[in-house]
Amino acid sequence: MTRITAEQLVEILRTVARRIDEAREHLADLDGAIGDADHGRTMSEGFAAVVRDAQDAAHAGAGAADLLPIAARSFLDAVGATAGPLYASGFQEAGRRLAGRAELSDGDLLTLVAGLGDGIARRGKAVPGDKTMMDAFGPALRAIAAAEASDADVGAALGLAARAAAEGRDATRTMVASKGRAARLGTRSLGHVDPGAASAAIVIDALREAFEAIRAARGGRG
Fold first, then answer.
1. Class assignment of domain 6-217?
2. Domain named DhaL: which ranges (predicted)?
3. I need a labelling partner for 160 at 20 to 30 A (CA). Which of 61, 107, 124, 150 fits?
4. How many CA atoms lie within 13 A of 128 on its CB side?
């Protein structure tokens, strides 16, 4: 098993930022239907800030786990919208769980996803079914727990998490929003995919993609 260095974690975050930026207009369109159409911009700017500051810290000698509280501050500083405090809380929780590790193991990526989801849930006080990003994170975390219980490898666990997040995202189309700005629409939010769930599904799938790239570079081991 190869360890994940701070520099590799920056590349993982860079993959997330790239995928979010590619979906920027799509996320804006989703948000425009039930919100104020700024979700794509804020998520793109937030992850761009995360990559910039994490890269600077890694170059200065920070350990891999040290990048996560830095990511929390960066995202919060860059994003004043609802997603800012939520993802900041997620990165902070992931950093707390992995504190002190100069390098991460493959399995620590699962801890990172779980920390993100649990931190977001605690800050937002949302659960699956509320038509929020937790409709992607919740199923993803359950998939990870089931995969770990069956001794699935990290790649398989991340694949299952990404699939569950996508299914959760799609399920928001049939939900009435009960949290956030979209809750003001009541039943008019029916028929629309929640933008927060859509971006969360992108984040989780990008983490899967980045891990697969690392595994391919090491010859498929891990």
1. mainly alpha
2. 7-209
3. 124
4. 18
